[in-house]
Amino acid sequence: MKKVLLGCVFLAAIHPAFGQNQSNVNAGIDVGTGFKNSAWAPSLLYHEEVGIGKLSWLRLGLGLRAWAYYGEGATLSSKDESNNLLFRKTSVNGASFVAGFNFCFPRVDIGINTDIGGLALGSKRSGFYEKTTSTPGIGELFYNTWLSTSPVNFDFLPLFLKNYNGQSEIYARIYLSKKMGLKLGYVLGQIAYKTNNVKERKVLLDDRERRVFDRYSLPYAALSFSLSD
After folding, report:
1. Element (H or E) spanning 14, and its range?
2. How many distinct structural domains can be found in the chain?
3. Residue 82 lies in a domain
4. What pLDDT was estimated at residue 200?
């Protein structure tokens, strides 16, 4: 799926139909949330889709997403999973550029979208650096202590790359009327934090890592509103 989505990001970015034939563009807003146990991920997505030539059943899309993720009891790991930080709570808010595609059927669209890049912000959180090893590394000073962390701010292709924040969706948009529909699916996301400096000095984990991340998948439901005539 990641290779398919990456191809769609490229096609959406270069396709000459965008901006040239506004009558062929569908626009809308989705307002909803992912949810599961003690985690939830609200989002607001503005999206535009355009047809590809005579392929009326396939549309490429671009958009803007405002999103958030709130969870409890998470373990975030470095890229090689050699470092783990335990969090009581996590909270990240972000805004992203989005690309994707839809398969269009009567009154139903089946689609996938993913964040291309964006900005994330959030409260500082303390993560417990849980580690016991017979071969201590550069992070030995901080083993089994609480470290101050903040969300990674600038994010890029979080579906494909580790250590970045963002979301993707797999969904069905069911049109109840010309202007309104119900969107059901899954939100696939990633949260990423980095250790904060102490007295202007970097706090490094073993292998000189500063970033940790975790992926999540949540059932998702939203209301969809069409902005097209």
Report:
1. helix 2-14
2. 1
3. yes
4. 87
